[in-house]
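sry for the spam today, last one i promise. struct tokens for design, 220 residues
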């Protein structure tokens, strides 16, 4: 399918109010060799709260969809190479909850502003996906979903963001871009087969791939 931007923002807020598919949607993106509790840790009392933003917006430069609407796009970032646990990885803009944040929606909005220069008043928050526990950083992450009415002028924060990666739903839905490859698992000195999205030549895997899979599941 190819859902245009207008149909998406009319459909998705209602769907996000219903029960979320969570593990059914996640399953294809979890490596078979992983502990299946890796992303659903039950004792999260000591986990750090965090939030990311899955931000949709229309692409006015692409040809209209078959329905005559504007193509819906989604933005990811590649993090800078540094000493932190998610160094160099592909993800949504976001970060840790701060005491000044009123809630995790505010965290996602603040971090999106700080990392890619999209102001909170440019984003309409429409809900959230399933929380995901991320073991390496001991974080419980809420994926917030929002949209901008027009394509933003992204400006990456060079200290945190190495590259901005824009894509459309058609690319993510293409079965040819859901792939697997061997990746080195340093903790056990072994290579494992990992499912990932080929995001215009970038490897989108792990927790962000699970979030993406849930989004696509909802839209199907």
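last one done:
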């Amino acid at each position: 399918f190819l859902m245009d931007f207008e149909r998406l923002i009319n459909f998705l807020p209602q769907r996000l109010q219903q029960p979320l598919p969570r593990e059914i949607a996640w399953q294809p993106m979890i490596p078979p060799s992983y502990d299946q509790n890796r992303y659903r840790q039950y004792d999260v009392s000591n986990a750090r709260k965090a939030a990311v933003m899955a931000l949709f917006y229309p692409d006015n430069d692409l040809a209209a969809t078959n329905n005559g609407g504007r193509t819906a796009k989604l933005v990811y970032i590649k993090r800078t190479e540094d000493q932190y646990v998610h160094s160099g990885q592909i993800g949504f803009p976001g970060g840790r909850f701060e005491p000044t944040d009123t809630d995790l929606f505010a965290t996602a909005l603040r971090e999106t502003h700080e990392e890619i220069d999209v102001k909170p008043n440019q984003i309409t928050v429409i809900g959230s996906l399933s929380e995901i526990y991320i073991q390496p950083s001991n974080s419980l992450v809420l994926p917030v979903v929002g949209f901008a009415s027009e394509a933003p002028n992204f400006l990456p924060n060079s200290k945190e963001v190495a590259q901005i990666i824009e894509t459309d739903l058609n690319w993510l839905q293409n079965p040819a871009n859901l792939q697997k490859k061997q990746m080195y698992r340093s903790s056990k000195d072994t290579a494992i087969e990992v499912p990932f999205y080929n995001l215009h030549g970038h490897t989108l895997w792990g927790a962000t791939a699970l979030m993406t899979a849930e989004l696509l599941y909802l839209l199907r």
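The longest helix spans residues 206-219. ok im logging off now
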